[in-house]
Structures are given as structure tokens and as C-alpha cells.
Description:
The structure holds 2 protein chains of 2 kinds.
Chain A: H1 2-30, H2 33-62, H3 69-74, H4 81-86, H5 92-111, H6 117-140, H7 164-193, H8 198-229, H9 240-265, H10 269-292, H11 305-329, H12 344-376, H13 384-407, H14 415-421, H15 423-439, H16 445-468, H17 475-484, H18 487-510, E1 514-520, E2 525-528, E3 531-542, E4 547-557, E5 560-572, E6 577-581, E7 583-586, E8 590-600, E9 604-613, H19 615-633, H20 644-650
Antiparallel strand pairs in A: 1-9, 2-3, 3-4, 4-5, 5-6, 7-8, 8-9
Chain B: H1 3-6, H2 8-25, E1 44-45, E2 55-56, E3 65-70, H3 75-90, E4 94-100, H4 106-114, E5 120-124, H5 128-132, E6 140-144, E7 150-155, H6 160-176
Parallel strand pairs in B: 3-4, 4-5
Antiparallel strand pairs in B: 1-2, 3-6, 6-7
Amino acid sequence: MFVEVGNFALILAFLAAIYQGTLPLAGALKGDVAVRSTAHAAAIAQGLLIVLAFACLTQAHAVSDFSVANVVQNSHSAKPFIYKLTGVWGNHEGSMLLWALILAAFGAAVAATKDSALTAMTVSVQGLVAAAFLAFIIFTSNPFARVLPAPVDGMDLNPLLQDPGLIIHPPFLYLGYVGFSITFAYAVAGLIQGRIDAEWARAVRPFALAAWVFLTIGIALGSWWAYYELGWGGFWAWDPVENASFMPWLAGTALLHSIRVVEKRGALKVWTVLLAILAFSLSLVGTFLVRSGILTSVHAFAVDPQRGVFILAILAFAIGGSLTLFALRAGKLQSEGSFEPVSREGALVVNNVILCTMTATVFIGTFYPLFVDILSGERLSVGAPYFNAVFAPLSALMLFAMAPGAMLAWKKGRLVEALRAAAPAAGAAFVVVVLAAWLAWPKTIVAAFGAGLAVWAGGGALIDLGKRIRLTAEPKRAWSRLGGLPRPYLGMTVAHVGVAVIVIGVMGAGVWRVETVRLMNVGDVISVGGFDATLTSVENLEGPNFLSESARFSIVKSGKDVTELVAERRFYPVRQMQTTEAAIRTTAMGDLYVVLGERRSAAGWAVKAYYNPFVFWMWFGSGMLAVGGVIAGLPKRAAHRASAPDAALGSVS
Amino acid sequence: MTRALLFAPLIAFAAIAAWFAVGLRQDPSRIPSVLIDQPLPTFTLPAIEGRDNPLSSEYVKGEVALINVFASWCIPCAIEHPVLMQIAEDEDILIAGINWKEKPGDGAAWLARLGDPYDFIGDDADGRVAIDFGVTGAPETFVVDRKGRIRLKQVGPITEQIWEQDIRPVVRRLQAEE
Lengths: 653, 178
């Protein structure tokens, strides 16, 4: 019964979205306020209907209703209950429904803001996007399809996906991807109205920040999952689907920066609108990549050319349509005021150029093999070496420009003054380069420079913050000044320091890590990174839907007991798959990471141990990015709290 | 800004979309016509570090064989791996591995961890042999007949479904051939 209700709700939501995407838009164009305003009600109705559909699918998974094809293919009666729930979106159909749910939620969020021509049009454009995706779900990927007769049990969820990290990874990623649909819809509405101004920027910025924060968390979670679950000690493989999430993130980061210029200076309008379209377009291309089977990847759980054609049609409609509008209307957007190259807005242009180059780099690397294949039939692959080789210099440039760029004032900045102020950071960076090069000599001179640049960028941001709160001149009032700083400035500083922290983590985990492999019996010791791990026992255990071989290690460092770790190898009988659960001890300085291998005759188990310096910094820095994004998006403080010195500072933010 | 420039993104997108549309019509796992029914490239690869069963094109002649390109850094390979283990257990078929672009020792450690379905494993650290095979990424698998000709190419991981529907029937047919 619930299944039919869900299916029906989905169809009604599709109809509501069609209404939402057409009549209110026409109403807004004609100036008919009554018709225009119905967009809001339609958005909320569409949202509630999808909530209902999603609840029905969740119910089918929760009670293991094996008459539903989706449940049969992705669940099993013995699967732990929590994974039955998360299995709802651990597959193609369910994840598309989640996508539609989030799309509707964002639409409803805009509908809940004040009623104006801009919001009504935005909600309406959002409705068009929703209608396209709901059609995709209903016609090619219906999660409510039945199988009759119902099988006795299901095929279980891919065990790699039965993991706490993956419970929340896809929803965050989708919140990010789909969040950019709002900035996209605002851009289209702005183009239709022919008005992109500070008011537009203020309306868009919180949504752009929200999408960006979610995407940041989603990517970090995915990377974290790859790190601890796949048992290879790495965290990023430049896999096409990882790239698919990284491209909108890069474009979205550029967008966040350029929106600020529209808001503060009324410049870069055309560019900002283009970025808003681009960020969402890249999210759509990401979906296209994963679903069409055009590129093979671990994430490609719904390879099906039929769906690919449908998604290509959605791409042509959304991206082609918006870019046509852009080509016809963007010429009408006028910049206000003058534009000095040496200024905050000038620095933001540099930022945008670098970020867009990075985006293009990832795009080319991801699609080049396909391009060559079509052109010449020759097949090749673009791997991590290409990406690392082009990303390192671009990132270096970015880090180098970040510190002085963020110090420049709006309208007209003084570069020499900024560089002079940042001099202590340069000193600290020099010390770090020398120290790191000396400690890790000779293999990682590049990583030493990376760490030095991170210190320069993060140190520069902190120095500027210290100056603004007059930390040395008036330390007693520094704290209250900190609270009085403009939120976007504060958020930016936290995020910039976060970037520096991530870079140190990447250098540590990517370049400075050490590893050893050996065959071990109980009582043997494996040494890595100053730790000695003794294998104390290996037992066979039984989990709810897996069998496990579980090895205990006692860890000793310089003669002192540190901790005990458990590494596992799990076997999932239903899927005939093995997974490894690495034993990880995390500290701020580095992770000890032990992976249990197969037993090889009497010689014992193959064990691989890594010491990955500074890995924690990647996760912590990603957290700082997210927190920075949240701070930057917080509403302005009430005017009466802006006391005199704060107001003076406000003008330089 | 000149108006013509505003059309640039649209034109770029149209080009990319057209290219996607062409790409979609190509089945990514279809065998390139140059390789089908052609004899296997002649090659000899050393054993990977930690193993002593090197691979040469001579070793697979006279038997129906799967030649599987894999690497420990390749995540889809980890997904495919249990299926290969199952095939090695259930089927009377030679399975040869080309360990592609691997650091010394990593391949053996990976197999130690997940199990080893291969009869022979060649170390293709610089990827030269894989180029002869037209490999674009790991995993890829070639089905070779008794006369040493490539008869099927699978791009991407072999799943249980792909094995049962696409590959096993071909293997059975080739095994019946003289």
C-alpha cells in the first residue's frame, strides 16, 4: 500500500513542479502578482509530496518489503537496521529521490523568504529543474517498481557502502550539488529581470555559502571514507567521480568570492552570473558522469546509456537554456563605479582566474580520454600524475596570492604595505621550509615548499586578523573587537587558515608517509614511524551479516605502551565480498594505520603498516572551511551593536 | 564586453554536449575493432616483487584464458576482485594478471590482503604492455581463445551479472571450440 502511495505522491509532485515552473514565471513576467505568488505554495506542496514519497520508500526498506525491486537489489533481511535506512539512498533510484527531495527543500527554503518578483521567479526556475528530475525518476528510475513474485530475500547492499561515513556522505554531497541549483535559479531569474545588483547578491550569498559548506563537508567525508575503509592509506585518487564533486566545489568557491564583489562594488556581474550557472552545470555534469556509464568508476552504480540520454537532455535544457539567456541578456548588465587592479576586488579577480583554471584543468583531465577516444579511437588514461603535476603549481600560486590579497582594501589597496605586514609570515614560512626539508631530506623538497606556502598563507591571514583586532596594541579589548568584526571577514579568515591547515595535511599524508609490509605470526612485531606494533591475537568473529577475522595489535613507542588496536578483514557471504577495516590511531602529529592481510600458510598474515603524518589536519582544516562558510553566512549583527571602532573597521572588510 | 564573447560559453557547451552525445552512443566496454579476433600482442613481463610466476604471451596459448589488468591503487579492481576469486574457484580457466603501473611490492601486498586468483602475474610497471593491449584504465579484462586470439574485451569491473550474462557464455563457447 505504502509503495503505491509513494508512487502516486511522486507523480503528483511532478505535476506540482510543472505548475511551479510555468504559470508563476509567466505571472511574474506579466506583472501579475497573484499568479506569481502561487510559486511559493506550489514549491511547498511539491516538497511535502516528495517527503511523503521518500517516507514510503524508507518504510519499504525498513520492513524489508522484497516485493519492491529496489529493496531486493540493495537490501537483505539480516542487514543491520541502520543500513536498511541508509540503503534507501545507497542506490541509483533512491539517491535520485533524495536528490529530488533536497531540490524541493531548497525550493521551499527560498519560497519561505520574502515574496518578491525575484524570489518568485527563482522558485519557478527551480520548479523547472525539479520537473526535469522528477520526470527522470518516474520514467527511467522508478524506485517503487515491484517484482512479482517477491523473492525470499534480497541481494544485500554493497558492503563497502555499509559504513557510518557513507550514511552521511551522499546526502551532504547532494545538499551541495543541489544547493547550487538555487544560485543557478537566482542567476536565471536575475538575467530575466535584467537586474544583478547588491540586493541580488545579498539574496544569493547565503544559499551559495550553504551549498558550498555542504559540498565541502560531503567531499571531506568521502575522502575520509576512502582513507579508512579502502585500506590503501590514501585519501584522494583523482577518480572521475571524485573530480565530478571537486569541479562544482572549485567553481562554487570562485562564485563565493565574486558574489562579494557584486555585493560590495557592483562589479563582476556578468562573470558572477556565469559562475552561478557554471557551478550548477558542473553539478549536473557530475550526475551525468556517474549515471551514464560514459566513464567507469567505483561510484558508477547505475551504468545505463538510456538514463545517460535522458540526463543529457536535462543538461541541454538547463545549461543550454541558461547559457542562451546569458548570451542574450548579460550584455545589459552594467558595472557600477571604477575598478582598480590593486584592490580587494582586483585580488578576487586573481582568485577567480586561478580557481577557474583549476576547474578547467580537472575538467580536461577527466574528459580528455573520452575526447581522444571519439576523435581517433585511441584509448588512454589520465591519472594522478597529470593532476598532481598541474595542481601543485596552481595551488602554490593560489596560496602565494592569498595572504596579501586578503589584506588589500576594497576600491584601492596598497600592495607594498600588505606585503610588509605579511613579512613575519614569510619569515615563519622560510623557517618551516628549511626545517621540513632538513627533516625529510632528500625526497620531499616539494612538500617542504608546500608546507612553507601554507604557513605563509595561514600566517598572513592570522597577522591581518591580529592587526584588525589590535592584538599587540590593545590586547585587553582584542576579544571584544573580534566579536565586532564583520562576519564575512571573520569567516574568510577561518576558511583561509583552514586551507593552509589542509595543505599541511595533504603534504603529510600524500608525500611524507612511510609504509612497511611483512608477514606476521602472533608475537611478531612490525615497526613504522617510530611505533612497534606487536600482533597479540587473531580471532574469528561473527557480525550481523559478515564474518570477521580480527587481529589485535599492542602498540609501543620508545618503550612505552601506547594503545591497543584492532584491524579486521570482513567477509560478506551474500555479496561474496571482502572488506578491510584498518586499525587507525589518530593524533595531531600523524596516524598509525595498520591493515590486516590474508593468512599466507604458516608464515602468518600479511600486514601492512603506514605512518601518515598530519592526516588529521586535512579533516580539521575541512571542518574550518565549513565553519568559516557558516560564519560568513550568518546574518548581520543588529545595527545598534556596531559601536564606533567596529564601524570604522567595517569599511575595510 | 563585446556581445560576441557572451555567446562563447553557449558555444563551448554546445560543443561539449555534442561530444557527450557521441560518447554516449559508444558503448564504453565495446571491443575496439582493431583488437577483436586479432592475435594477442607478444610480450614477456617479469614477476611482480614478492611473487615468482611471471607472465608471457606464450604461457596463455593453447588455453582459454582471462587476462586481467589490475592494480592495488584501483578502487574498481577491489570491487571486481571477489568475482575473480569466485571464477578462479568455480571455473576451469586460466587467469593471468597484468599488474599495471604498480609500485614494487604493492601488488603482492594487495593480493596477500584480498586473495590471489591469478595463475600468472606480469609486472607492467611502466604500462608498456598495457598500451599494446589498448588499455585505458584498470580494470580491463581480455578473453583469449586457444589459438591466442582476443575474442572479448571487458572495460571496467567484472560484476557477477556481467560475468554470467556476457563473459561466461563466450568462455563456454570458446572452450567448446577446438
